[in-house]
Design goal:
Helix content is about 15%, strand content about 45%. The chain has about 450 residues and is of the alpha+beta class. The two termini are about 15 Å apart.
Length: about 450
């Protein structure tokens, strides 16, 4: 009998002890799973650049989970764009991806060493670079492109105009460094304004710029041939051109009917339009319109809606809540392109967040009486996304912040399981001791 009881007690004890290590084994398994990633470092040598993005994906340009994306990574056209760090003479980025995955990548040069904004792609042989992910892999790539400074001439034919100003920017209306702007250039509403020189019936300006750069532009007629001051905007066509080679000329024939009625002072007062922007966000309690014009430029202070603040050179305007929608009204020049997105800063349950809403950064040409309505969805993964044909500047992304990941529920606690096992073990021991005591009493009788 004693032997049976001893065996029974030992079996209960071993069973309980065997159950205890299970959570620890699970933890070890999780750690091992987290370690099954390949660390890959990419070096890109481009001495003419001061800013480069790695454009990448895996297994046919698929995105990786948010937790594996390096700091500063954004989605553009559903492709990952990650800023590279300049270390010594190379741009460097560290990636963590599943081992054996195919890394698809290319390089986007966005700023020359002079500080000028550019947009030059290095796709290798045209289809993009590729590499199989192996832990500890180091990739070194020499640039396949050259940034060549060329002179671009822009010629605008407007025989009835007296003065014309080129309103322009590069790579989605960005401003060039001051030392590279043509003489007389001024910055108004965050956009470059350069006076054009008259040449017979045309107006001409020459710009030094890197080949491959996109020029965005329009024309502002500021006086008639009689010297009468006016403001007539010719930019409805969304003019833009890619600079290709030295000596090329962009020629535009004005199709404006410059009748006396149009070339009057009344065009000045009619140059501003009001845009109403509405976003449906039933789960939000506080939303900001993050916006700019003609490539995220600022409007004059007196035109900004009440409460507008500048964060990292981008305007943030609080939106008024109307039911499930948030509404803002802005005044901007007629024909200007308004660039905008939505930043959710508080949810309906009063939780403070920083969520850049939607997969797009919107843009639209301003016309009087427009009402823009968007259906919203709150992307709680925190991706800062954007439309394929629109560029949101780094300043806007920085202003929105790296939208934090939603608070994740902690993993199931092992504490309750452990406590239960301890209670079970204690009860089993007491049961066995009771049986032993009862057997001893019967023996004494």
């Amino acid at each position: 009998m004693r032997r049976v009881l001893r065996h029974l007690a030992l079996a209960v004890l071993l069973g309980c002890l065997a159950a205890l290590p299970a959570p620890r084994l699970a933890c070890r398994s999780n750690v091992a799973h987290a370690q099954r990633l390949a660390n890959v470092q990419i070096h890109y040598y481009m001495p003419q650049a001061s800013e480069v993005f790695l454009v990448w994906g895996i297994n046919g340009w698929e995105t990786v989970p948010v937790r594996l994306r390096p700091h500063g990574t954004v989605l553009k056209g559903k492709v990952l764009h990650t800023p590279m760090s300049l270390r010594d003479d190379a741009f460097v980025i560290d990636l963590q991806v599943p081992p054996g995955a195919m890394i698809n990548y290319g390089f986007l040069v966005t700023k020359a060493h002079t500080g000028q904004d550019v947009k030059e792609w290095d796709r290798g042989l045209g289809v993009g670079y590729q590499a199989i992910a192996v832990d500890g892999l180091g990739i070194e790539a020499q640039t396949k492109i050259t940034l060549e400074l060329v002179t671009q001439e822009i010629r605008y034919e407007a025989p009835k105009a007296g003065e014309v100003v080129l309103v322009w920017g590069i790579s989605d209306w960005a401003v060039m460094p001051e030392q590279q702007r043509p003489e007389g250039t001024e910055i108004r509403n965050g956009v470059m304004h350069t006076p054009m020189a008259r040449d017979a019936d045309s107006f001409v300006v020459r710009i030094q710029i890197f080949s491959g750069t996109t020029i965005d532009y329009g024309f502002l007629i500021t006086s008639t041939g009689d010297g009468e001051p006016v403001r007539v905007w010719d930019g409805q066509k969304d003019y833009h051109a890619i600079v290709s080679r030295e000596g090329s000329t962009i020629e535009v024939d004005s199709d404006l009917m410059l009748a006396d009625a149009q070339l009057s002072a009344s065009t000045v007062s009619a140059s501003l339009v009001t845009e109403e922007i509405s976003q449906q966000l039933p789960d939000a309690a506080e939303v900001f319109l993050v916006w700019g014009i003609n490539g995220w430029g600022l409007v004059d202070e007196e035109q900004r809606p009440s409460g507008t603040v500048i964060k990292n050179r981008v305007m943030h305007t609080p939106m008024a809540q109307e039911g499930d929608a948030f509404v803002a009204k802005v005044q901007i020049p007629a024909g200007a392109t308004i660039d905008y997105g939505f930043l959710v800063t508080k949810t309906r349950d009063e939780q403070a967040v920083q969520i850049w809403n939607s997969d797009e950064v919107y843009h639209i040409v301003a016309r009087e009486g427009d009402s823009i309505v968007q259906d919203g969805n709150m992307e709680t993964e925190g991706d800062v996304g954007q439309a394929e044909q629109t560029t949101v500047p780094a300043e806007a992304i920085a202003a929105a912040g790296d939208a934090p990941l939603p608070a994740q529920a902690p993993p199931p606690s092992n504490a309750s399981n452990t406590g239960l096992l301890v209670l079970l073990l204690g009860a089993s021991v007491l049961l066995v001791l009771g049986i032993v005591a009862a057997a001893a009493q019967r023996r004494r009788r």
